[in-house]
Amino acid sequence: MMEQVSFHDKEYNLEGNNSESIKTLYLRWNPREDNLNFFFFTISLGSNKITKCNVLAEIAGMFDPLGLLGPVIVQAKIFLQKLWLLKIEYDQEFPPKERKMWERFRGVLPKHKNLKIPHYIFTD
Questions:
Q1: What is the pLDDT of residue 8?
Q2: Taking burial as the number of CB atoms within 10 A of a residue's CB, which of 18, 49, 65, 77 is the most buried?
Q3: What is the pTM of this model?
Q4: Is 15 exposed, middle or buried (0-12, 13-18, 19+ CB in 10 A)?
Q5: 28 and 21 in contact (C-beta within 8 Å)?
Q6: Chain segment 75-121, per-residue pLDDT in tens
Q7: Looking at the DSSP assignment, which residues form a beta bridge with residue 116?
Q8: CA distances (Å), 108 to each of 25, 41, 63, 87, 105, in order?
């Protein structure tokens, strides 16, 4: 059966840089350590204006195909629901309370970049 697989598909060279990682679906796979870690899309707020449009764009950038960050992403989505209830317009700047809540949430995101999920194969 292995004869049908091209030579390129049979192996992965682990020699070289230990910090080498491969980007895949907003995740990074480190083949040497065989784990996954995350990276997030954040908007540079040069004008310091936080709007519902910015928040929506950042939440949309939190792509988690495996559902491993569900508890983090659901907090952002609940925050977005609160904005809808407050009837805040897309380009309207947030009131101080909501601004502080979003800044606190964004401050936690970099901590998740260090989260490493080890590869695990279910076997019995």
A1: 54
A2: 49
A3: 0.66
A4: exposed
A5: yes
A6: 999 999 999 999 999 899 889 999 999 989 888 877 776 778 887 77
A7: 37
A8: 21, 14, 17, 26, 5
